[in-house]
Design a protein that fits this description.
The structure holds two protein chains of two kinds.
Chain A lengths: L2 H15 L3 H13 L5 H7 L11 H6 L4 H14 L15 H7 L8 H9 L5 H16 L9 H4 L5 E7 L2 E6 L1 E3 L12 E3 L28 E4 L9 E4 H20 L12 H4 L3 H8 L7 H12 L12 H6 L9 H22 L7 E4 H4 L8 H11 L1
Parallel strand pairs in A: 3-4
Antiparallel strand pairs in A: 1-2, 1-5, 5-6
Chain B lengths: L2 H23 L1 H29 L8 H20 L4 H28 L5 H20 L4 H23 L5 E4 L1
Helix pairs in contact in B: 1-2, 1-6, 2-3, 2-6, 4-5, 4-6
The chains are: A alpha+beta, B mainly alpha.
């Protein structure tokens, strides 16, 4: 997903869930910031690098894919953009190495999603925004894994766009080109994808790179053969999936506000969203690469307030000019804590499932402290919350 | 990375440093060693692809191509080894691509770092410029075996240092209270 959904649609969902305009702005800013909080950004403001929630293109080109590098990549992409659906999934006659990657395939309504939403309860609006980014991406990025893997994330020649026509669809073949500077052109079925690399751990095989930006477009409907699915085709209906994502965000935020007692997966706020269903579906089906303007207009009609443009540097100065523990009270400070918490939780769950692809997770209470100190912040803060 | 992998990386780095120094001392023999290394690289890459197919790619749509590639590359490696005299131009092309590409990436990363307010962008930039310059040098020394070996040794030496640094990198342990 991109700015249109993570920023503007998240604003709309938060408003329908009952948040005020100011709260909605903080939530949608945080949801969008997940796509921009890279190590380069954090290094520029002197923040802990372990809080990175994304990697920029150049960072990825530069990254080492040795064990430590792969674990770092997996911690970032599996925690924030490709939340695994089932860490205990079974597939017969597979090596441990294969199954570890297979279990990281992203999908909606997994156990980890419930944990993600619950983790954001009673914390900060930044944590709510982060959780909404993760939730929304489980719908957009399903069938791909947040770790470099040819055997999971590769796509092949069999890739067709399903274009609505009358009561049915016409099929149009999609062939991806590796030309990063050329923009996608839906009218000509021209889409950019990453290069085919036979190396299992090549960065080109991370997430949905091989399928280009298709999973990020709300209007598109396509079918293809995922590398892992034994030659069985998968049909991806983004307008329908994105609508479910929207309704699930409203439901999750109602839970986070305290309007609902417990969060259950596969539950959606269809009734609350019903008055706007036609409008939202119309926006989602608009055949264009970004629907930011449409969601912005819809959001401003809902709240009667102006939704300002996203500015990555908006809270930078506040963080840089704060000192010591005051940094944790700033907007970015709270976001960093939310990011560390999410990464910590997901890494722990992956580690406990017997999978070392996201690295090592240690129970502080029984093992004490080792390694890099960024996560020490989380321990002291959690202790303060408990007290 | 566990302790055995760290130790392995450490000893491989030492071997790479020693190897690059020995090749520098005797460039003529060093050139033969480089060509043997390249052909052995093909052999091991072929074996790696075949093992990768049986371990992972046999579950993948279109995975058989990896098995076929493995067999062809393995065969090519054996063939190259039997010739043992690879034309210098191929070795130079390989060096040119490696240094040119990594130099370009480093320069772009340095510019990005500068824009983000990072302090160490100058070091990255100089590293990138050095790498890119080496690639350019490769273009002008096509006829000199000595320079070819020197540039190759520089690359091996640098990779050894990076590998050794990586062997001592701390594992980032994520804590759960």
């Amino acid at each position: 997903m991109q700015e249109d959904f993570h920023y503007y649609a998240t604003y709309c969902a938060a408003f329908i869930a009952g948040y005020t305009h100011e709260e909605c702005m903080d939530i949608c800013y945080s949801a969008q910031f997940v796509d921009l909080c890279s190590k380069s950004f954090l290094s520029g403001i002197g923040a802990p690098l372990s809080a990175a929630t994304t990697q920029l293109q150049l960072e990825l080109m530069d990254v080492r894919t040795d064990i430590i590098g792969l674990q770092d990549i997996t911690r970032i992409w599996a925690s924030f953009h490709f939340l695994p659906k089932d860490l205990y999934a079974v597939k017969k006659w597979c090596s441990k190495k294969y199954i570890n990657k297979y279990r990281l395939i992203c999908g909606p309504n997994g156990e980890l999603l419930a944990e993600t939403v619950k983790l954001a309860k009673n914390t900060s609006l930044q944590a709510v925004g982060t959780a909404m980014h993760v939730l929304a991406d489980t719908w957009a990025h399903m069938y791909f894994a947040g770790t470099p893997s040819l055997v999971i994330n590769n796509t092949d020649y069999y890739f067709y766009e399903l274009i609505p026509e009358g009561d049915g669809y016409t099929e149009k073949h999609i062939s991806f080109k590796h030309s990063p500077k050329s923009p996608d052109n839906p009218d000509k079925c021209f889409y950019v994808g990453s290069l085919y690399q036979m190396n299992e751990n090549s960065i080109m095989n991370l997430g949905h790179g091989r399928a280009g930006h298709l999973p990020d477009y709300s209007f598109i409907h396509y079918k293809y053969l995922p590398a892992w699915n034994g030659y069985k085709e998968v049909v991806k209906d983004n307008p329908s999936d994105y609508y479910k994502a929207f309704c699930q965000m409203v439901y999750a935020m109602k839970y986070l506000r305290g309007d609902i007692d417990s969060f259950k997966t596969d539950t959606y706020a269809y009734d609350e969203v019903a008055p706007y269903e036609g409008r939202i579906k119309e926006i989602l089906n608009t055949r264009q690469l970004s629907v930011s303007e449409d969601f912005k207009k819809f959001g401003e009609e809902l709240s009667g307030r102006v939704i300002e443009k996203f500015d990555v540097n908006k809270y930078k100065e506040e963080y840089v000019s704060s000192s010591g523990n005051d940094k944790d009270k700033t907007f970015l400070g709270k976001f960093i804590i939310a990011a560390l918490s999410q990464k910590s939780m997901v890494t722990n769950k992956i580690y406990k499932s017997g999978n070392r692809l996201a690295g090592v997770s240690v129970d502080y209470k029984s093992k004490g402290f080792k390694g890099i100190k960024d996560f020490a912040k989380l321990i002291s803060l959690r202790r303060n919350w408990d007290e | 990375m566990n302790s055995i992998q760290r130790l392995m990386n450490f000893f491989i780095s030492l071997a790479m440093i020693l190897g690059s120094i020995l090749m520098l001392i005797n460039p003529e023999k060093g050139y033969v060693v480089i060509t043997v290394i390249l052909s052995l690289g093909l052999v091991f890459s072929g074996i790696g692809s075949i093992l990768y197919y049986f371990k992972m790619a046999r579950h993948m749509v279109g995975g058989k191509i990896i098995f076929i590639r493995g067999v062809i590359v393995f065969d090519l490696g054996l063939f190259t080894y039997s010739i043992s005299d690879i034309p210098k131009i191929y070795v130079l092309m390989y060096l040119l691509i490696i240094h040119g590409f990594s130099g370009l990436v480093e320069i772009l990363r340095a510019i990005e770092g500068k824009n983000n307010g990072q302090k160490r962008w100058k070091l990255k930039l100089s590293h990138g410029v050095l790498d890119f310059s080496l690639a350019l040098v490769c273009l002008f020394v096509i006829h000199s075996v000595q320079f070819t070996v020197m540039i190759y040794c520089f690359g091996v030496f640098y990779s050894a240092l990076v590998r050794m640094a990586s062997a001592f990198r701390k594992t980032e342990i994520v804590y759960i209270q």
